[in-house]
Structures are given as structure tokens and as C-alpha cells.
Amino acid sequence: MSLWTQLKESLGERRLKMRKDPRSKPAMANFATARSVALLYREKGEGFYILVKQYVKFLKAELGIREVLALSYIEDHKDIPHYHLHRLRYDYFTSKNLDFFMEPTGEEVERFVEKDYDILIDLEKDPSLPLRYVLRMSKARLKVGHYSEAYEHLYDLMIRCDERATFDEYIKQVNHYLRKINSHEERA
Q1: Tens of pLDDT, residues 86-95
Q2: In angstroms, how far is CA 52 from the centroid of its own chain?
């Protein structure tokens, strides 16, 4: 990583820490009450994209979630994979959408953070700075992610998995806890 990139990340980290959570307070939600779920992840190749796509299908078909949207961060804005070009329920932003402080901008990001999803699930073990900005600025009622002391301020529910846990193992834990949590609301 270049010195210039390190400086931008350092300034971006400082700026992110000053950002306040846009929600007045987090709210409990579970899969029984949720009408909308958002997924956040970094582009890692077609195999991972297919896993995300299968999870979206599961959330809709098996759990009856009406609205599911996935937002991906693609680091290389010059090499957008062909499977991301069909944007129906899967949006993305690239390094080209980052400002000097590495904060994402653009229509897709603004639309994502402004929507008050019932549940936002971060699929990253160690989210990059642009993804942490999205997490912080999101108005989602419940934010779920991998357990990490460094990122406690970003999540309302953290799932502790083994360091070598696969996507499937993590999702299994997320599903388990989001089915068990009591929320005193009913799905409309």
C-alpha cells in the first residue's frame, strides 16, 4: 500500500469515527418480523457472488422476506465482472465512487444507506473502510456482522465464528440467531 493510500485511509478512519449513527436507536428485528433485508459485501469473484445470490433466494423463498437487496464494493472500477452488470436486486459501487477520505458516494450508495431496512447483514469478516462507511451511515434497524472488538460500534448484533469459518458456517449462525431473537412486533 502506498504512502498516499495510507494517508487517505488514516484521514478516512478519523472522519468515520466522528460520524454519528443516523438512527435514533437500533431496534430489534428477526426473520419472523422482517420485511426487508440488506446484504453488504466486497466483490470476491463469481463463486462468492453465486453464494450471495443463493442466500438472497433462500431469504425470499424460505423465510418470506419480501425485499432483499445486496450491495457490493468492487475495488477495481476498470474491471467490473459481467455478472454485476444486471442490477435487479444486486447493486455495487467501485473505487471510482470514493471521495478523498474513501467515503463512498453515488446514487446506489445513497439509496442503500437511506432505506431503513429491517435487517442489514454484513458478510465481511474484516470490512474495508468504504464498507464501514456504508455500515455507519445505514439507517437499517438492526445491523449484524462478524464479531470484532474493533467494529463493535458498527453493529447491533455480532456473530462470533471461528477464524476459519466459511460463508456457509457464518450464514448458518446468522440464521440461527435471527430466528431466535424476540422482537415484539409482527410482520405486516
Answers
A1: 655 689 999 9
A2: 12
